[in-house]
């Protein structure tokens, strides 16, 4: 995380607890050599991996399958100037194992825009970082943890 | 924007109008060869450039000054499965011109965590893209525009 900006860093456990509270995050990757970012709903797997579900034909899937991506979620209260942001960084891969696909069909995220052929994408939680943003502490975030 | 995912694209004017409604977005860049993303409050300049204000000593400034970055903002209603996302992509640079700094001190964004020495960062609106996310249309977004 960045230093010299007065923000408190969160540990991995705190990050995953916050991430589990929100339904939507943003996938960050590189597209045609430019930074790209897109909100998506998601769920967390037991090990902290981020699970996405999208159309098999989408350009997003082609852009991220096999790449290192970041997945960010946050909750910011602009009036209180406070909030948190968590980022999971790791390799993204389309889930191809049939048993795993079957499990995720039952337990994974649902598509907001269902399409005939969908795939699950798993982002490995290789790096899980987070921070409190803004100057004041946020309700529900206990600084002593 | 991505095709084959059923989402409607927004034109530049629509994007800038939506961007002006929200106080916080996320800066996306590359850090130590990894994708990095961080929420920040911002304001829009008259030409659609994104203006940030941060500590001169922050690692963020060193990471983005002179680089092409993306700045994303969104509003997503998870219950309604709908919302929008806008991305401004362009070169980021610390504002060094004294007259320009003076103007931005009056009209630019305010820091949430003021620090003794602050700088303004300007992201040129070289590419302004946006989309409706989710399957339903969003109140306030008139598809005929």
Automatic annotation (TrEMBL), chains A, B:
Domain of life of the native organism: Bacteria
Matches recorded under Gene3D superfamilies: Electron Transport, Fmn-binding Protein, Chain A (2.30.110.10)
Pfam families according to UniProt: Pyridox_ox_2 (PF12900)
Record-linked InterPro entries: Pyridox_Oxase-rel, Split_barrel_FMN-bd
Record protein name field: Pyridoxamine 5'-phosphate oxidase family protein
